[in-house]
Amino acid sequence: MTTVASFSSIPFLVLSDFLCRKFGYVQCIAFGLICYSIRCLGYSLIKNYYWCFPFEVIEGITTGLLVASAIIYGSKLSQQSNLGTLQGILATFHYGFGKSAGSLLGGFLMGRLGGRVAFRIFSGGSFIFAFAYYLIFKLVFQPRIERAEKRKRDVSNMQVEIIPKEDLSIAGPESSKGSKGKTELYPITSTPIKNSSSYPSNKIENENERESNLNA
């Protein structure tokens, strides 16, 4: 059975990138979880172990397509510097924690409830997780992605107006001495620009006037 499952995974591993771009990463992951549900339900219904072979063929989708889609989708969401870390986390949760917890829970359910009931429980759980994953993506994450893409399109399509250099300045209030009709140009600013040479003398005159008023 392992040989059948391994050979059935090869086409989906080869075509995983094409299928993800064709149907979407989330759709492929949800479809892989549904195929897990079909496999577990089929195992709970068969009475002859030879009927395991058709359901082992589905492992090409549950392993080849599902895991590959998760890895590719993770690489699209993460930065290039964090790609190795993300793949390590995915492998740890799937092959480490997931299979260990599944084996422990599956053995407990088989011992208490029997193999058929245990497979049906896993089948229902896989279907519920597939539906919940797809629903959360459609209702929560996809609108955010669409709004972000819309903002990017609006920014890229925004018309940029080039202002000539001479329009960025205005004529000064008075022309400088000896300029003979020429006007000084000052940069546009929200606050008036004070003449640095006359400002200290004006400040001294104002202080002297204030002192004379106080003495009077």
UniProtKB/TrEMBL annotation:
Residues 170-216 are annotated as: Disordered. Its main location: membrane. It comes from the Eukaryota. Keywords: Membrane, Transmembrane, Transmembrane helix. The keyword Plastid does not apply. Residues 1-216 form the Major facilitator superfamily (MFS) profile domain. Pfam families: MFS_1_like. Residues 188-203 have a biased composition (Polar residues). The keyword Transmembrane helix applies. It is found in: Membrane. Residues 204-216 have a biased composition (Basic and acidic residues). It is a multi-pass membrane protein. Signal peptide: none annotated. InterPro entries: MFS_assoc_dom, MFS_dom, MFS_MFSD6, MFS_trans_sf. One of its GO terms (cellular component) is membrane. The chain crosses the membrane at residues 23-42, 49-73, 117-141. GO terms for molecular function: transmembrane transporter activity. Belongs to the major facilitator superfamily. MFSD6 family. PANTHER family: MAJOR FACILITATOR SUPERFAMILY DOMAIN-CONTAINING PROTEIN 6-LIKE. This is Major facilitator superfamily domain-containing protein 6-A. It comes from Armadillidium nasatum. The lineage of its organism: Eukaryota, Metazoa, Ecdysozoa, Arthropoda, Crustacea.
